[in-house]
From TrEMBL:
It holds the Pfam family ParE_toxin. Belongs to the RelE toxin family. This is Plasmid stabilization system protein ParE. Keywords: Toxin-antitoxin system.
């Protein structure tokens, strides 16, 4: 099983999304965060299970989806680096440039 390394920006993005959701539904925010962490644990056992994002096929990123989020990661040297988390309705290229 690969080691999971959460990058600070990804944790901040997850926190921002959860904060936004919790304003109207605390339970839904907690459920989303738990589901994301569970999904990432499964990715640690199957590092190639995520799909290649269609917007950036040249990069060695992969993504998994936990509605309403896309979670981007990179598998390198036996580690899974969680790089970005964004809402599905955001444009990826603009998101990565900010």
């Amino acid at each position: 099983m690969a080691e999971i390394v959460w990058m600070v920006p990804a944790l901040n993005e997850l926190n921002d999304i959860a904060d936004y959701i919790s304003v109207s539904n605390q339970f839904a925010a907690e459920k989303l965060v738990n589901t994301i962490f569970s999904k990432i644990e499964r990715v640690a056992s199957h590092s190639e299970s995520g799909k290649v994002p269609v917007e950036i096929p040249a990069l060695s990123y992969r993504e998994v989806v936990v509605n309403p989020c896309r979670i981007f990661y990179k598998f390198e040297n036996g580690k899974i680096f969680i790089l970005h988390i964004m809402r599905q309705d955001q444009e990826l290229r603009r998101f990565l440039l900010t």
